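Weekly structure sync, notes
Attendees: PL (lead), two postdocs, one rotation student
Agenda item 3: pending single-chain targets
PL asked that the sequence for the first pending target be pasted directly into the notes so everyone works from the same version. It is reproduced below exactly as submitted, 319 residues in total.
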Amino acid sequence: MGKLLFSLAIIVGAMVAGQAFHLGIKKEKAREITDNVMGRIRSAIVLFVTPVISLGAFWIVDFSNLSLISLPFIGIATLGIGVLLSIVASKTLRHNRLQKGSYFCCGSAANAGTVGGLLCFAFFGEPGYTLTVMYCLLFTPFLYLVSFPGGAYYSDKDTSQSLIKRLVSDKIVMIFFVSMVAGFALNLFGVKRPAFYSTINEYLIPITSFFLVMSLGYTMRFSKVKHYPKEIIIMLIIKHILTPVFVIGIALVFGLQNYGDGMLFKALIILSAMPVGFNALLPINLYGLDINLGNSCWIVSTLTLVVIVPALYFVITAV
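Predicted structure, written out during the meeting:
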């Protein structure tokens, strides 16, 4: 129960703090400054702190284990099923072109890294966070090679810029892959990771999670949510019910429930039930899709963590 309360305190506390910052700032100039500060905090974490955590995770992961090697492919399979289900749902809802693109993007992104990583760390310690890193390994390529092209397809804007060029020039992508390769190299050559690394991560993971979730809470805008009840409900079903059922089925077929006293199986349940990722809003904004629809699905899906996290806790303690 303590692990549940710890993770809920960070998630709820961070979202409330972020939204309180937003509501508490009335002057336009002060809001611009705060927007800039929030962006800088998020960028600093992604560019400088997250690579340290990722490097440490790849440094100790057992790449000889086929169960772990399957995680990145299960991860992108969850995004893929989200894409397919969102396309079907969008047709059923008779969306216009820009709404279809926005819904497509929401289906193609999940917040398994920040929120899922925090939950796996809270419930299973650093080994759980390592599973998260493996699970999300192909999320960034998926974003650039599926989410962005999909958003461009539904857009009315000029989308002639090369996605490959954007991918290789994105410093966040490059830093992530450098940290991954460095960690893998240290692992491969048998370099022993310093004992203090675990202690550092015990603080870095929850602290960075808090500030990243706080930045999400700061960007939440609720005024348009009431206009998309059907879209939101269906997206919640896709993200929090159908996708986990799909992943659980895969895990049982391949016998992953037997790895690590069930930790891998439990981590998959958690990671597969994560809400719409903030990254969904990137192609939605870039290509002029229906931002109100995308923002509404993202907001409500994220807020349902207040219910989803306790539900996940009781599920993983029962299996």
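Discussion points:
- The CA atoms of residues 77 and 209 lie 25 Å apart.
- The chain has a mean pLDDT of 88.
Action: rotation student to compare against the earlier draft before next sync.
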